[in-house]
From TrEMBL:
It comes from Gossypium barbadense (Sea Island cotton). Pfam families: CTP_transf_1. May be involved in the synthesis of minor phospholipids and in modulation of IP3-mediated signal transduction. It is a multi-pass membrane protein. Its cofactor is Mg(2+). One of its GO terms (biological process) is CDP-diacylglycerol biosynthetic process. This is Phosphatidate cytidylyltransferase. Its EC number is 2.7.7.41. The lineage of its organism: Eukaryota, Viridiplantae, Streptophyta, Embryophyta, Tracheophyta. GO terms for cellular component: endoplasmic reticulum membrane. Residues 1-13 have a biased composition (Polar residues). It comes from the Eukaryota. Residues 1-29 are annotated as: Disordered. Its main location: membrane.
Length: 403
C-alpha cells in the first residue's frame, strides 16, 4: 500500500491557497500572451459589468469628496495612501517568519507615520492652521509642532531604527533586512506621489482634479477601445493592452482635455487663465472668432502626457506584478484589483502636473498676490502684525521724505 505523505490541510494553509487563487496568475496565463486580449475573453461582458459598477461607485464617492472641499480631498488622499502602503507591505510578507517576529508589522507602520509627519508637516506648514481655525490655543499648539517638526521626525525615526536593531534575531537577519529595505522603498514610492498630489491640492483644487480626471478618462477609453477593437498586443508585460486601445485612448484623452474646459462646466473666480481669448477662425474673416481659455492650452499638454507617458506607470506596475507572480496588488475594488492598481498611472501624473504647474503656470516674477500668499502661509499671526507695523513705518517715512 502506498503511503500518503501529504500534510493534513489546516485553516492557515487553506487561507494561503485562497490568496493564491485570487491574486496569482493562472499557470497558462503566465506562459502565453496572445489569447489574453479582451476580444478573445469569453467572460469579458461580465468583467465589464463588474468594472462599470465599481467605477460608478468610485466616481460618485470622488465627486462627493470634491464637493465637500479641500480638507476632505486631503483626507481621501491620506486614506488611499494608507491602503496602498498596506497592500505593498503585505506583498513580500511571509506568515511563517512573521510568527517569530512579534511587533514587526507595528515597526513598519511606525516608519510609515513618521514619514507622513515629515512630508505633510512641510507641505501643510501654516496653510492648514490659517485656513481651519482662529483659535489662539490651537494655533500656538500646531505652530510649535510645525516649528519642531524636523526634530520630532528625526528622533521618531531614530527610535524606529533602534527598535529594528534590538529585534534582530539569529537565522532571520536576511528576512528582516529585506523587509527593512522594502519598507523604505514603499515609503519613497508612496510619499513621493502623495506629496505632489497634496501640493497640487493646495495650488488649487483644479490642478488636482484635472490631472486625476485625465488619467481616469484615459483608463476608461483604453479599456473600451481595447474591449471592442483590440487585436494587436501592445506590450508583453501587460498582455491585455493593445495598440488599438492605446491609440484610441490617446486621441480621446487629448481631445477631452482641450474641449471639456470650453463647455462651461467650470465656475470659479476667473483669473487670467480662465478668461477667454478670441482667435479668428478664418484669417480672411475677422468676424468669425473662437473663444479659447488659456488654461485649455495647458490642459492639452497635460492630456498628451496622461495619454502617452503616464500609461508607462501602469506598464511598470504590470511588470512588477509579473516579477512576483501576482495578478493584482489587492482585491479591495471588484474588477479593478487593489488601490495600488488604480493609482499606478496617477503617481506619474501627479509629479508631472506639479512640475508643469510650477514651471509654466505659476508667474516667475513677484506679484502682490504671490507675496501676500507667501506672507499668509509662512508667517504666524504675530509675525504678520509685526510686518504690518514695520511696513507702515517705512511707508510713512517715505511719504514724509517726499514732502
Amino acid at each position: 500500500m502506498q503511503k500518503d505523505n501529504s500534510a493534513p490541510s489546516t485553516p492557515t494553509s487553506a487561507r494561503a491557497r485562497h490568496r493564491r487563487r485570487s491574486n496569482e496568475f493562472p499557470a497558462d496565463e503566465s506562459k502565453t500572451n496572445g489569447h489574453l486580449l479582451l476580444v478573445n475573453d469569453h467572460n469579458k461582458y461580465r468583467s465589464m459589468w463588474i468594472r462599470a459598477c465599481s467605477s460608478l461607485w468610485m466616481l460618485g464617492f470622488f465627486l462627493l469628496v470634491i464637493y465637500l472641499g479641500h480638507l476632505y480631498v486631503l483626507a481621501m488622499v491620506v486614506i488611499i495612501q494608507i491602503f496602498m502602503a498596506r497592500e505593498l507591505f503585505n506583498l513580500l510578507r511571509k506568515a511563517h517568519e512573521d510568527k517569530h517576529l512579534p511587533g514587526f508589522r507595528l515597526l513598519n507602520w511606525h516608519f510609515y507615520f513618521t514619514a507622513m509627519l515629515f512630508v505633510y508637516g512641510r507641505i501643510l506648514s501654516h496653510r492648514l492652521v490659517n485656513t481651519v481655525t482662529s483659535d489662539k490655543i490651537f494655533y500656538r499648539l500646531v505652530s510649535r509642532l510645525i516649528k519642531y517638526q524636523m526634530v520630532i521626525c528625526y528622533f521618531s525615526y531614530i527610535a524606529g531604527f533602534m527598535w529594528f536593531i534590538l529585534t534582530l534575531k539569529k537565522k532571520m537577519y536576511k528576512y528582516q533586512f529585506g523587509q527593512f529595505a522594502w519598507t523604505h522603498m514603499i515609503l519613497i514610492v508612496v510619499f513621493t506621489q502623495s506629496a505632489f498630489t497634496v501640493a497640487n491640492i493646495f495650488e488649487g483644487i483644479f490642478w488636482f482634479l484635472l490631472p486625476a480626471s485625465l488619467i481616469a478618462v484615459n483608463d476608461v477609453a483604453a479599456y473600451f477601445f481595447g474591449f471592442f477593437f483590440g487585436k494587436t498586443p501592445l506590450i508583453k508585460i501587460s498582455p491585455k493592452k493593445t495598440w488599438e486601445g492605446f491609440i484610441g485612448a490617446s486621441v480621446a484623452t487629448t481631445i477631452s482635455a482641450f474641449v471639456d474646459l470650453s463647455t462651461g462646466w467650470l465656475h470659479c473666480d476667473p483669473g487670467p487663465l480662465f478668461k477667454p481669448e478670441y482667435y479668428p477662425l478664418l484669417p480672411w474673416l475677422p468676424s468669425t472668432e473662437i473663444a479659447i481659455l488659456p488654461v485649455q492650452w495647458h490642459a492639452l499638454w497635460l492630456g498628451l502626457f496622461a495619454s502617452i507617458i503616464a500609461p508607462f506607470g501602469g506598464f511598470f506596475a504590470s511588470g512588477f506584478k509579473r516579477a512576483f507572480k501576482i495578478k493584482d496588488f489587492g482585491d479591495s475594488i471588484p474588477g479593478h484589483g487593489g488601490l495600488t492598481d488604480r493609482m499606478d498611472c496617477q503617481m506619474v501624473m501627479a509629479v508631472f502636473a506639479y512640475i508643469y504647474h510650477q514651471s509654466f503656470v505659476v508667474p516667475q516674477d513677484y506679484t502682490v498676490e504671490t507675496i501676500m500668499s507667501e506672507i499668509l502661509s509662512s508667517l504666524t499671526l504675530e509675525e504678520q502684525q509685526i510686518l504690518y507695523m514695520k511696513l507702515g513705518q517705512i511707508l510713512q517715512e517715505r511719504m514724509f521724505g517726499r514732502n
